[in-house]
Design brief:
mainly alpha; 2 strands; 45% helix; elongated
Length: 211
């Protein structure tokens, strides 16, 4: 009895139900990793057949748009209050002392000019002091005394103040300056942002300028 290899091959195909791959079968049906006898599963969207899906970039979650570093959804970019160093009573008092000396020198000259009308001279000196604070802080963000000590008046979000904030905070300086600025000092001591009455009304703070 002779051995027939064709009969042995047919027997194995009937026994296991496996189809031999055809040498003329299209190339895409003979891809790497495809098991004979099973239906080919369609690849996911955007994935090349026969290759593993590439993982997403580091730190990026699949299905979500990657947002820029430090930007929070639903919040605007505001000045971080935790980075501001608020000026206390001591350094602000020194700034007022420097400004008072400057105003006193100018007031002395005006008083000499209006020596025949002391009441008028005193009124002019008072108005000059208020105008000095308003103009300097509205245009420069600080008076000469604050500049000398590295202080600056800004809004709550850290942006420069306007004429409106400067007028409000400096008109209320009349109340803060009562009892040699004792009223203003009490407001600063009781405020977490070290705001005197004028600052609270104008929504401003006095900070140390960053180096």
């Amino acid at each position: 009895m002779s051995y027939d290899p064709n009969q042995s091959q047919q027997y194995e195909q009937q026994q296991y139900g496996q189809q031999q791959p055809n040498a003329q079968q299209p190339y895409e049906q003979q891809q790497y990793g495809q098991q004979p006898g099973y239906a080919q599963q369609p690849p996911p969207n955007g994935q090349q057949p026969g290759y593993a899906q590439q993982p997403p970039p580091y730190g990026q979650q699949p299905g979500y748009a990657q947002q820029p570093y430090g930007q929070q959804q639903g919040y605007g970019q505001v000045y971080a209050q935790g980075q501001q160093q608020y000026a206390g009573v001591g350094v602000r008092f020194l700034a007022i002392l420097i400004d008072s000396i400057i105003i006193g020198v100018i007031g002395g000259l005006l008083s000499f000019i209006f020596r025949n009308a002391p009441g008028l001279g005193g009124s002019i000196v008072g108005i000059l002091a208020i105008v000095y604070y308003i103009v300097m802080e509205a245009t420069q963000g600080a008076t000469l005394g604050k500049m000398a000590l590295g202080l600056r008046v800004v809004k709550m979000d850290g942006s420069p103040i306007s004429w409106t904030e400067s007028v409000i905070r400096n008109l209320l300086r009349i109340i803060d300056a009562l009892f040699v600025y004792l009223v203003g000092a009490i407001f600063v001591w009781t405020s977490p942002l070290k705001q005197r009455l004028g600052d609270r009304a104008a929504n401003t703070v006095v900070i140390r300028k960053s180096s």
